[in-house]
Amino acid sequence: MKVLIINGSPHENGNTSLALKEMKKVFDAEGVISETVRIGSMDVRGCIACRTCDRTGICVFDDVVNQLAPKF
User: Fold this and answer.
1) How far apart are CA 18 and CA 22, in angstroms?
2) Could you read off the pLDDT of 19-60 as tens digits, one per residue?
3) Which residues lie closer than 8 Å to 38 by C-beta, 6 or more apart?
4) Residue 7 — very low, low, confident or very high, per pLDDT cuts 50/70/90?
5) Looking at the predicted structure, is the pLDDT value of residue 72 above 90?
6) Which residues is 6 bridged to in the sheet?
């Protein structure tokens, strides 16, 4: 099993980061492969339901979502 941990907080070492680090410890102890990505300081556009991603495999908005999509 693999887990993608997405930190959406703008605070690099805030409470969300601390909580996610604790979760990573649990995953590691259980033998679960996990990766944490921090997107809190990046631009992320909201979905407008244009369905372009269905046709092309990428979002019409070129933001971090397209970079992370292969990991989903």
Assistant:
1) 6
2) 999 999 999 999 999 999 999 999 899 999 999 999 998 999
3) 7, 9, 12, 17
4) very high
5) no
6) 37
Structural domain span for residue 13: 1-41
Give the whole-angstrom CA distance, residue 50 versus residue 65: 15
Question: 33 and 2 in contact (C-beta within 8 Å)?
Answer: yes
The predicted pLDDT at position 4 comes to 97
Q: Which amino acid is at 37?
A: V
**In this structure, what token pair is assigned to residue 29?**
């102890």
Q: Helices (DSSP H) in the chain: which residue ranges?
A: 15-29, 52-56, 64-68
34 and 59 belong to one structural domain: no
Are 6 and 17 found together in one domain?
yes
- DSSP summary character for residue 12: T
